[in-house]
Design goal:
Radius of gyration: 27 Å
Structural class: alpha+beta
Number of strands: 45
Length: 725
């Protein structure tokens, strides 16, 4: 419970799980952030005074010249020369609030500050929380208490990082190659990285990381931020000569998009901040610990999935899909998902979106027989929807063209701006929202749907929402909130229903959508070479149980690259595993292998989905090492994979990070689905048929000698603690 104080005391110290945030409360203005980073221990009032003095460059009483020490919301009115944390206007004129703190509430890990500017009629509430694992959560809420409308141009969350942070890592990407990191020296000045796609996008900022030196997986300090918002965002860095360096993020809104009438409020998405003294794995561990501590986090064993898209595409045949369901069950699949192509007039991707009723021309008996068979075989049944989209060639668009989120207030035409022949259904129109909710809910009830694959396959280009006042304004903000509300309502109405966020693959995987969904589809690419890095960087925020990772056929549909089944399996084992494959085409040998894969996944998933994720710091650019270690250090499993030719004939040793150096471990390669291949006639001694017993100190400090693996090969290495007398 947070305690309230009638008078603002001089400092607030938030502490949890090795992290501290220390703020000073000046006599006027917003709290100043003195420290975000390692826990400084129990600090007395005298200690806090000393910290304040030790980090200050100016003596009391302090004036605007002290703006180098940023507040919770740095602004021009503070003398801040960087990007303001708040830009707000009335009648087209910028406002410059002078805040007076009216209330402070806090406990050991929470701080809520309320401030007002009575002259401008504005109230600001700022909330800082250190969550489970030491992840810092920060949001603001601005209320218009005045007599006229106020436009919010942006309201962003920031925290300071030390001057020792001299490198910046950001992310870019494209379809089927999401989340590609780019590391540079920390640029000078105020810089902003934005996305304007109406969804996060394949090239979304994702995470912004400041680091001391080039970031490494296991060592070095790093400071990172991520915004829990599924649409347009701004990631910002302020690296000015006279101010503290700031890292932050906020929603990108267009002029007029967030206009507050008297009494209305705007609350920002949550910005998440992760400080780590242990490199990028430490950054990820804070995110993973926080996510796993949420009450809604998935805890049941993640079922092995078969999704039908690459098996049949739009060529739906009830008899074939029933055979596929039987084949899936026979190899160990636990969730069968029918993808795009099942609904009215949907024979290709140009028609039918918006008409969420079963196509009786293809399914004359409806989907009941298939769903009944799937459940009878002991599997869950999932169904694909794209509820935020509509085709012009649909009953819905013909009946309600005014429900389309267009670039003008006029009804769009085939000659207008479309994307994949799709338009966006304006879910901020209550009638449109209810239409979609009703159709989906009816199917969930009728068919006993256990899982929804929720897709979002286009950007929102120039979206204009016409409100109840008849005025058209930018519509991304209200569209995103309406989509959130729709998903939340369906889950509330159908307890136990799970929903996956898919957006042309991994274009919407943020913590905003994951407040209400249960996993993400990391990429439309099932090429395991691409997936090695896509999954690695997705796991910078998301733990493996939330990341869909399937075995596809060879060659891969997105790259035409051919790979061994053993390599595809080793890659899929790193997440919530499954198949994206027509198993009816498998040879007898492949069926034996995929059955072994199913058994191996079920054996290892409790370890992978609860363990600490570790990534080896390797020298060879063609080598990837990803591990999952039990919290108590009793077991771990690693994928050691190549994405290119290794550069040296004598390959480097790989350390099994995360194990207990004081224990002894039995180490073996799990090659039930096939063995990796390597060049030369020499096999390291530990790669024999029988497990070898190795001291933990050797595994963590010396490592295992690798063979010279060929490109696109992988070893799955398991270590189990040996009982001692």
């Amino acid at each position: 419970m947070m305690h309230r104080f009638d008078e603002v005391s001089s400092w607030s110290v938030l502490r949890r799980d090795g992290v501290a945030v220390v703020v000073a409360h000046p006599e006027r203005g917003l709290p100043l952030v003195l420290h975000w980073g390692p826990d400084l221990g129990d600090l007395s009032l005298a200690d806090l005074g000393s910290l304040d003095a030790a980090t200050s460059r100016q003596t009391a009483p302090g004036t605007l010249d002290a703006a180098w020490r940023p507040s919770l919301l740095p602004q021009e009115s503070d003398g801040w020369a960087g990007r303001p944390g708040l830009l707000v206007a009335a009648d087209g004129i910028s406002l410059f609030p002078r805040w007076t703190v009216t209330e402070v509430a806090r406990d050991t890990a929470d701080l809520l500050v309320t401030a007002q500017d009575p002259d401008l009629g504005l109230t600001l509430r700022s909330h800082v929380e250190i969550g489970a694992g030491g992840l810092v959560l920060l949001w603001h809420e601005l209320t218009n208490d005045g007599g006229g409308p106020v436009d919010v141009h942006w309201l962003e969350a920031t925290l300071p990082v030390p001057r020792s942070a001299d490198h910046l890592t950001q992310f870019t990407g494209r379809w089927s190659r999401e989340k590609a990191p780019v590391t540079t020296l920390l640029p000078g000045g105020s810089t902003a990285r934005q996305t304007r796609r109406g969804r996060s996008g394949h090239d979304a900022p994702w995470v912004t990381v400041a680091s001391s030196g080039t970031p490494r997986n296991r060592t070095g300090e790093a400071w990172a931020t991520h915004l829990g918002w599924s649409a347009d965002v701004t990631h910002r860095v302020d690296h000015l000569t006279e101010h503290a360096t700031l890292l932050g993020a906020g929603e990108l809104v267009r002029p007029g998009e967030v206009r507050l009438a008297p009494g209305e409020a705007y609350r920002t998405p949550v910005a998440y901040f992760s400080w780590s003294p242990r490199g990028l794995d430490g950054v990820a561990d804070r995110f993973h610990t926080w996510l796993r501590a949420r009450p809604q986090h998935v805890t049941s064993p993640r079922p092995l999935v078969l999704n039908t898209w690459e098996a049949v595409y739009f060529d739906h045949s009830p008899s074939k899909l029933e055979r596929l369901a039987r084949r899936a069950a026979s190899v160990g699949v636990e969730r069968f998902v029918l993808d795009d192509g099942w609904f009215h007039s949907r024979r290709d991707d140009t028609t039918g979106l918006g008409d969420w009723v079963v196509d009786t021309d293809v399914w004359p008996d409806g989907l009941g027989p298939l769903t009944g068979l799937v459940h009878e075989l002991g599997m869950e049944f999932g169904l694909w929807f794209e509820p935020e989209m509509v085709n012009l060639d649909s009953d819905l668009a013909r009946a309600h063209p005014e429900w389309i989120l267009s670039n003008t207030a006029a009804v769009p035409s085939p000659d207008g701006l479309s994307f994949r022949t799709q338009y966006v259904l304006d879910l901020a129109v209550p009638e449109a929202w209810e239409h979609v909710r009703g159709q989906i809910s009816a199917l969930v009830t009728e068919l006993g749907i256990d899982f929804i694959k929720w897709d979002h396959n286009r950007d929102l280009a120039e979206p204009v929402h016409v409100g109840a006042d008849g005025v058209g304004r930018p519509g991304t903000h209200v569209q995103t909130l309406a989509a959130y509300a729709l998903i939340a309502r369906l889950k509330a109405d159908h307890p136990g229903l799970e929903i996956e966020s898919c957006s042309s693959g991994g274009a919407r995987t943020d913590l905003g959508i994951l407040e209400i969904t249960d996993r993400v589809w990391a990429s439309d690419s099932n090429d395991p070479v691409e997936r090695q890095d896509i999954q690695r960087w997705t796991s910078l925020v998301l733990p493996p149980e939330l990341i869909g990772a399937h075995v596809g056929p060879s060659p891969a549909h997105s790259s035409a690259r051919s790979t061994d089944l053993s390599y595809r399996v080793a890659t899929a084992l790193q997440g919530h595993a499954g198949f994206e494959w027509d198993l009816l085409t498998c040879t007898d040998d492949e069926l034996v292998a995929v059955t072994a894969y199913a058994a191996l996944y079920k054996e290892l998933r409790s370890l992978v989905h609860t363990g600490t994720v570790v990534h080896g710091d390797t020298v060879d650019p063609g080598l990837r090492v990803t591990g999952f270690v039990a919290p108590d250090g009793t077991a771990g499993v690693w994928t050691v994979a190549t994405v290119a030719s290794l550069q040296d004939a004598l390959t480097e040793r790989v350390r099994l990070d995360g194990l207990d150096p004081a224990r002894r471990y039995s180490v073996r390669v799990r090659d039930e689905v096939g063995s990796a291949r390597w060049s030369g006639g020499i096999t390291p001694g530990w790669l024999g048929k029988e497990p070898v017993e190795v001291p933990g100190s050797v595994l963590t400090e010396v490592g295992l000698q690798l063979p010279t693996l060929w490109p696109m090969q992988a070893l799955v290495v398991e270590a189990r603690a040996v009982a001692t007398d």
